[in-house]
Amino acid sequence: METYNNIGIQRRLRRFFRRDGRALIFAMDHGFEHGPTDFEETWEHIDPNLILKKVIKAGIDGVMTLPGIARIAGKQFYGKDVGLMIKLTSKTELRPKEDHFLQSPLGFVEDVIKLGADAVAATVYWGSPYEDIMMKQFAEIASIAHDYGYPVVQFSYPRGPYINERYGKKEDYRVVMYGARAAAEMGADMIKTYWTGSKETFKKVVEAASGVPVLLSGGAKTDNPVDFLKLVWDVMEAGGSGAVVGRNIFQRKDPEPMIRAILRVIHRNEDPEEAAKAEGLV
Ligand SMILES: O=C(COP(=O)(O)O)[C@@H](O)[C@H](O)[C@H](O)COP(=O)(O)O
Question: Which residue of 21, 59, 137, 202 sits 20 to 30 Å from the alpha carbon of 241, by its own alpha carbon?
Answer without folding.
Answer: 137
